[in-house]
Amino acid sequence: MTMTDFHPQVKQLLDGELTLADLPLELRAEGEEALRLLAAVDREPVTFPGLDGRVLTELGRRAKAPGFWRRLRLRPWTLVPAFAAGAALALLLARPIAPPPATTVTVRFVLFAPEAQQVALAGTFNQWDPAATPLVRTGTPGVWAATLTLPAGQHQYAFVVDGARWVPDPGAPAVDDGFGRRNSVLSL
Amino acid sequence: MKTLRVFLLLAICSTAVSAQDVSARLAGRVPPEIAALVHQLATSAAARGLPVDPLIQKAIEGSAKGVPADRVAAALRALVGQLDVAAVALQRAGPALTDTDAIAAGAFALNAGLSDRQVTALARASRPPYSVAATLRVTSTLAAMGVPAADAVDLVTQVIASGGATTEVLGLPAQVMSGVSHGQGVTPAQAAAGLARAAAARANAPGQNRSHPGKP
After folding, report:
1. Residues of B with CB below 8 A from A94's CB?
2. How many H helices and E strands in chain A?
3. Of A56, A173, A169, which Cα lies nearest the Cα of A103?
4. B25, B111, B174 member nearest A176 (Cβ)
5. Strands A165-167 and A104-112
6. Residue B105 placed within a domain
7. Cα–Cα distance for residue pair A101/B148, rounded to 1 Å
8. Which pLDDT score, from 0 to 100, does residue A58 have?
9. Does residue B37 sit within a domain?
10. Containing H/E element for B153?
11. How would residue B15 be classed by pLDDT, with cut points 50, 70 and 90?
């Protein structure tokens, strides 16, 4: 059986619209097979071995650099420019600035949606913008995929099918989104 | 006195710029009435030491999904309630644990089905090198996978008690998923129970050194 041969209700199962228990008994085996095929898709996070070690080594090296600030002495006349510099620094810190480099993980997102004309990914990592991260068709009919490099941490997301239908990832855990639907959860 | 004035000026500038930041992030993404509500809730939340980013994200998410404004407003108020409950739960475990990242993770844990007492218990268990926020997120992910909340808490605390590496804690959802994928009819709850038993056995094994838990 190819993935496009599945019964429409099994496809709904793969889209996360039905659970295995919702399927008629005669379709359960087909549903389990479809889920097994989906689970076989490699979605293991890609890590970068040794990155932590290199970062820690660099931090240690910088910490041992000559201590300019330890030699600095403040005189009364230096207070005026010091306050000015402090004010500028406070304003700078109050603005949105790029966070320090965090560990990143490359993740492949996959959705089986044979009837879809376009599929996209929206989530906390792209400000829930349905146009920001389109998925592309893979070599397997009906299977869409996108590979993203995301910062370590927790992300919530959903697939957007044909620009309108929000579908949780059937291969990922999900939580209530507060609007009566489900968001998929990815912990990296 | 002059110094005090300078610091007050800086504080006012900082607040104004933060408000501009919220406006900038919401501009063109949410209706004006939702933007105004987020401003109001965020100002109040920030004054109580709560994170404001989850509120901004939730407002943007609701609008992107085409959710009616009144429902987005209700979700935002519910989220503020969860952030408040999470902050109190973390405060019970220790004031030093109540940072905005941990509060956001605690609110997510409540949304995933954990109780405030379970959030407190996890925070108490997460002494360095374990991060409170990471521990809460892992446990919530397990709950979202279908592991009963009590079992998820038990698994994570057992692995911490056994001195498991921080990476082992972070990898628990993947381990449970693997157990479900490779086992015949194994549920997430059963896979988690198996891992918890293994961790408990390791913690009780002779010669187990528990004085330096959490190999990085």
Report:
1. 13-14, 17-18, 21
2. 5, 9
3. A56
4. B111
5. unpaired
6. yes
7. 35
8. 66
9. no
10. helix B149-161
11. very low
pTM of structure: 0.69
Question: Are B107 and B79 contacting, i.e. CB atoms less than 8 angstroms apart?
Answer: yes
Could you please report the per-residue DSSP string of B32-73?
Answer: HHHHHHHHHHHHHHHHTT--SHHHHHHHHHHHHTT--HHHHH
Q: Could you tell me the domains of chain A?
A: 3-47+102-187 (2.60.40.10)
What is the domain extent for residue B109? 50-204
Question: What is the number of structural domains in chain B?
Answer: 1
Nearest-CA residue of chain B relative to A94?
B14
**Separation between Cα atoms, residue A57 and residue A76, nearest integer Å:** 39
**Residues composing chain B:** 216
Give the single-character DSSP code of A3: G
Provide the residue type at A5 as one letter. D
Residue A120: strand pairing partners? A134, A160
pLDDT tens-place string over residues A30-74: 877 777 776 655 555 555 556 555 656 665 566 555 444 444 454
pLDDT of residue A76: 53
Average pLDDT over residues B144-149: 95
Q: Give chain A's contact residues with B (Cβ, < 8 Å).
A: 36, 39-40, 44-45, 83, 86-87, 90-91, 93-96, 122, 124, 127-130, 153-154, 156, 166, 173-181, 183, 185, 187
Establish if B111 belongs to a structural domain. Answer: yes
Pairs of CB atoms within 8 A across A/B: 90
B131, B106 in Cβ contact below 8 A? no
Using CB atoms, which residue from B18, B60, B142 is nearest to A128? B60
Alpha-carbon distance A45 to nearest alpha carbon in chain B (angstroms): 9
Q: Which of B13, B65, B170 sits opposite A91 (nearest CB)?
A: B13
Coil, helix or strand for B209? Answer: coil
Q: What tokens were used for B74?
A: 């209700």
Could you identify the residue written with the tokens 């009616």?
A: B68
Instruction: Please state, in angstroms and rounded to a whole number, the distance separating the CA atoms of residues B90 and B131.
Output: 13
Residue B11 phi/psi, 5-degree rounding, is: -65, -40
Distances (CA, A) of B18 to A77, A100, A149, B52: 32, 19, 28, 10
Closest CA to B41 of B56, B61, B31: B56
CB contact under 8 A, B21 and A181: no
B56 within a domain of the structure (yes/no): yes
Encode pLDDT of B195-205 as tens digits. 999 998 887 77
Task: Tell me the two tokens of residue A85.
Answer: 């510099």
